[in-house]
Amino acid sequence: MSPTQDPQQPPVVPPAPVPTPPAFNSTEPTSTPVQPRVDPGNTLGIVGLILNVISPLPALIVSIVSYEKSKKAGFGGKLGRIGILVASIYLALSIIFCVAFFFLVIIPSNEKDNAVASDAKSAIVNTITDEKNAQAVASYAEAFGQNYGYYPSTRADFSKPPSDTSTSNISSLPVGLVISGTDPTAANGTTTIGYQYTTRTSSQDPSKQIVNGGRVTYWDYNNSKVNNDVYMVGLPATDTPIYIPIK
Question: CB within 8 A of 245, min separation 6: which ones?
Fold first, then answer.
């Protein structure tokens, strides 16, 4: 015992040392949050779906690219598959519509146009033929008047045999041509020419009527009516002669 220590006091115990925290080491790795994976084909998938509103073919191409891109990244490519399905349906419907439109609209329209063009061509050809027939009848009537001194008044007059010396100036009419007392129509215009004659009183015998002229008409298929430019033959007695149908 130390001579200076009080024998009544307990011995002094020194305080325990306070532990110091370890120094921070900046080189130690720190934990980072894991970022979720994003499908790289989603953007193109959305674009493909939107393109279906405009055109299915570009939408199908973009959707296929989207699906392949997602597939390579390990994703299912849901948007790409939906885009492929929708675009395929739209594309199939578009093809069906185009085929139906072609057969139901385009082809009938072309056939109609061809029919109209064919009818117009036939009208021109028929009118030209009718006009030539009318000219032949008018020439026949003029030659008949020169040979006989009067003009035809019956169908038999248009059948005078060319071999007759008195009808040597009369040319034969087209085979199958019909001379009618009434104006031709669209139904018979290709084979029929209208002829009506007019008369005047004979200067030598007032009791007799002489056939001194006539008119020739034909059907105009271009305008669907009797041609206004009728062929006049002979010398009508008045400005407004009365024409009589031949029999």
Answer: 180, 181, 182, 196
DSSP character string of 161-206 = -TTSGGGTTPPPPPTT-EEESS---TTTTTTEEEEEEEEEE-SS-T
Q: What is the CA radius of gyration of the chain?
A: 55
Torsion angles phi and psi, residue 179, rounded to 5: -100, 120
SS3 220: strand
Q: Report the amino acid identity of residue 110.
A: N
Q: What tokens were used for 61?
A: 């191409």
Q: Measure Cα distances from 85 to 42, 78, 90, 193, 194 in Å.
A: 16, 11, 9, 71, 73
CA distance 185 to 81: 70
Which tens digits make up the pLDDT trace of 3-47?
Answer: 555 556 666 666 766 666 665 555 555 556 667 778 888 888 899
Note whether 44 and 62 are within 8 A (CB). yes
pLDDT, tens digit, 9 for 90 and up, residues 95-128 = 999 999 888 888 888 877 777 778 788 888 898 9
Cα angle value 103/106/111 (rounded, 5°): 95
